[in-house]
Specification:
Length: 334
Amino acid sequence: MTTFKPITEVEPLDQFVTAQPLQPFLQTWAWGEFQQAVGRRIWRLGAWRDERLIGSALVVEHQLMMGKTYLYCPRGPLADDREILIQLLSAIRKLGQAEGAMYVKVDLGLNKFPLPIQELESAWSPGTPLQPATTLVLDLKSDSGIMLNAMHQKTRYNIRLAEKKGVTTRASTAAKDFQTFLDLMHQTAKRQEIRLHPDSYYQKLFTTLISAKMAELMVAEYQRQTLASHLMIWCGQTATYLHGASADDNKNIMAPHLLQWRTIELAKRRGMEKYDWWGIHPDDPNHRWAGITRFKLGFGGEIIKYPGAINAVLQPQWYMAYRLAKRMRGGFDV
């Protein structure tokens, strides 16, 4: 018999999440703790059979204008079979209704079975993803030599160049390295015209996930200067490159290339099986991610497309007004 009740303990949830394809850290207990740390309400929905967790969904409440809210499930729900997943989607929609949300958004993750969006009940319709729609994944079970040979020739050249120039790399959880990482993030955001969250958001992300032994900085240095740094997420056997940053100067040293390769080597030594580059946009050479996409693709890997996002609109009039306001302000559709 299947029962639906909240998940109240870390272990069963994280064991279930790390048994899923690509082991989505956005559905872990620690990610829920981080969302609470930045002031959001969360729910951890569970489907149980004989006291065994067979489905889960971390749902997060986000604030909108005029006191309105929406509920969001990132890279979930997760389930052992299609029927449980459909029931969890229904539970998320009912939760949104009970909490007075304007709408519910689900960024579907990878499950062990296909879930064609067109087969879902009519309450759901396609929405705009908040997470990257496409990612690139390296198979870390391959031999290092094979991985190097699979890279673009220019990528291998840049790795060797950084080595010859004397770039060094290390892993860190130190506060001073995190502050340097933030400084580099601001340089990168200005250079690439990217909007960042407040520094406090990244600080809470870092400290919360470090406490769960899920986060770590990788640092590349040259002549006592940090040239590149990125934030890694370790979840099960998947290493995820979440946020990266580099200095404005000494671009010709190619520190980010060596830093990525050293991170891949570290992940292999730690027994990781996948290296998730988190997001690419390979279909549009003019996309704002075009440069970073070329950089990531240079390391090789398998391109993976996610099923997409779906919305359940609960307050149609407010929803239409909100969409119109977003468009008028130049924001993306919801």
